[in-house]
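can u do me a favor
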C-alpha cells in the first residue's frame, strides 16, 4: 500500500472523510482516532471516488501484492466484475449455489469506513501482506452483532487476483471463534474490559509532551481508561488472511490500520486458563 496509486486513493478517502465529519456537527471525532465517525456516509462522495478510480487503469504491478489489488477491486465496480470467476460458488453450510454475473452487487469492503483490521496469530503473519509469493487470500466480513462471517476467497490465477468463492458461516464455525466472541464483549462492555486486562498491560504510545516521540510503560487496571482507545470497532469488522497457515492459537494480535491517515494500533491478547487477556497495546 505504499505505491503511488494507493496514496492517491488514500488522499481521496481523506477528503471524503473530512466532508463526512464537517457535515455532522453533533458528532465529535478525536483528532488521533483511527476509526473516525462512520455513522454518516457521504454516498455521493464515495460514488465520485469510484468514478475516479475507474478512470485510472489498475497498474499491472497491483497484482503483485494483494493489498494493492484489493483497493482497486473494492473501489472499481467495472474491474470487480472482471475479476470474479462466474458463476461464483457461494457456500452456506453444506449447500453451494452458483451466483451469476447479473446477480452480483458491488462489494466495497472496508473502503467506506476508512480503516481495516487484521487478526493475526503472531507477528510473522502481519508481514505476509508484503509477500509477493502469496497466491491465496481470504477477506472476512465479520458481523459481530449477528454472529456471522462472510469469507471472500481470492486466488491468483495466471498472475491475476480473482475472487473464486464466497463462504458464509456462523462465528462458531470460524477458526477465530473463541477470540471473536470474546472481542465482541470486550469492545462493548467496559466492566468486562477491566476484568480482561492483564496486570499490568504493556503500553507504547505517543508522548503527549512531544509530537515526534513515543513513550512506553505499564498500565494498571485502575488507570486503563486514561490510556484505552477512544473508539474500538464494533458490530462489523474485517480480517484479511494471507495464505493458508492460520490456526486457532492462544495469542491474537488485533491490528487496526487507517486507510487515509496511515495510523495504526495493535492490541495483543493471550489466552490463559481458558480466558483471554489484553497484555499489550501499541498506539
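np, heres the sequence
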Amino acid at each position: 500500500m505504499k505505491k503511488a496509486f494507493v496514496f492517491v486513493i488514500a488522499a481521496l478517502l481523506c477528503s471524503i472523510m473530512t466532508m463526512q465529519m464537517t457535515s455532522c456537527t453533533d458528532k465529535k471525532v478525536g483528532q488521533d482516532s483511527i476509526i473516525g465517525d462512520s455513522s454518516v456516509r457521504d454516498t455521493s462522495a464515495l460514488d465520485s471516488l469510484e468514478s475516479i478510480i475507474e478512470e485510472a487503469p489498475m497498474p499491472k504491478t497491483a497484482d503483485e501484492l494483494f493489498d494493492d489489488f484489493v483497493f482497486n477491486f473494492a473501489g472499481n465496480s467495472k474491474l470487480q466484475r472482471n475479476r470474479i470467476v462466474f458463476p461464483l460458488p457461494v457456500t452456506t453450510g453444506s449447500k453451494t449455489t452458483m451466483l451469476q454475473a447479473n446477480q452480483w452487487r458491488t462489494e466495497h469492503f472496508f473502503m467506506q469506513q476508512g480503516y481495516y483490521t487484521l487478526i493475526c496469530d503472531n507477528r510473522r503473519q502481519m508481514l505476509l501482506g508484503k509477500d509477493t509469493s502469496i497466491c491465496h487470500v481470504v477477506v472476512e466480513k465479520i458481523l459481530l452483532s449477528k454472529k456471522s462471517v462472510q469469507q471472500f476467497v481470492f486466488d491468483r490465477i495466471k498472475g491475476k487476483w480473482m475472487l473464486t468463492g464466497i463462504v458464509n458461516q456462523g462465528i462458531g464455525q470460524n477458526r477465530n471463534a473463541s477470540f471473536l466472541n470474546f472481542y465482541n464483549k470486550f469492545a462493548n462492555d467496559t466492566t468486562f474490559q477491566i476484568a480482561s486486562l492483564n496486570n499490568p498491560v504493556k503500553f507504547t504510545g505517543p508522548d503527549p509532551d512531544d509530537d515526534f516521540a513515543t513513550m512506553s510503560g505499564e498500565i494498571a487496571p485502575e488507570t486503563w481508561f486514561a490510556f484505552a482507545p477512544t473508539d474500538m470497532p464494533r458490530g462489523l469488522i474485517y480480517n484479511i488472511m494471507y495464505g493458508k497457515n492460520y490456526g486457532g492459537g492462544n495469542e491474537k494480535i488485533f491490528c487496526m490500520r487507517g486507510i487515509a491517515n496511515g495510523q495504526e494500533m495493535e492490541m495483543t491478547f493471550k489466552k490463559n486458563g481458558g480466558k483471554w487477556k489484553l497484555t499489550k497495546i501499541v498506539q
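Confidence is low (pLDDT under 50) at residues 1-42. hope that helps!!
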